[in-house]
Design goal:
- This protein is of the alpha+beta class.
- The protein has one domain.
- About 55% of the residues lie in helices and about 10% in strands.
- It has 5 helices and 4 strands; from the N terminus they run ααββααββα.
- The chain has a 4-stranded antiparallel β-sheet.
- Strand 1 and strand 2 form a beta hairpin.
């Protein structure tokens, strides 16, 4: 009987160690270090733009919009693996309603935020090419 209890206790302890090792694994990284400046650039671009951010039919200024993107970025960091997936998860549409986000710039028709941000990303990459 003592052998069975010892064997069960050993299995239990081994199980605890395995569980601890599994849960102690570091979270998957977010964007690669070389793309971090791109994400920061996009958030700052939203923060400082004169354009409005339309989210679920309500418009927000740049500061509120950038804060929202930052919160979503922090929330989905484990799933974000590139600047493009940052845009997809943080700045494309409402995860609750499914409605697309839009950027409304003065004198221009509304543009889906995904398209606007991909355009800004393209400009950033063009201006920051390394040879």
């Amino acid at each position: 009987m003592k052998k069975i209890l010892l064997k069960n206790k050993t299995a239990y302890i081994a199980g605890l160690f395995l569980a601890a090792a599994f849960y102690a694994q570091p979270a998957l990284p977010d964007v690669p270090p070389g793309q971090k400046p791109e994400v920061e650039f996009l958030i700052e671009t939203v923060r400082t733009t004169d354009c409005k951010f339309d989210r679920n039919g309500k418009t927000y200024g740049g500061k509120k919009a950038a804060s929202h993107l930052q919160r979503k970025y922090n929330h989905y960091k484990d799933e974000i693996t590139s600047t493009e997936t940052f845009i997809e998860y943080s700045a494309t549409k409402s995860m609750l309603s499914g409605a697309d986000y839009y950027i409304i710039c003065p004198g221009e028709p509304p543009v889906r935020s995904q398209d606007w941000l991909l355009g800004k990303l393209s400009e950033y990459r063009q201006n920051n090419k390394t040879e």
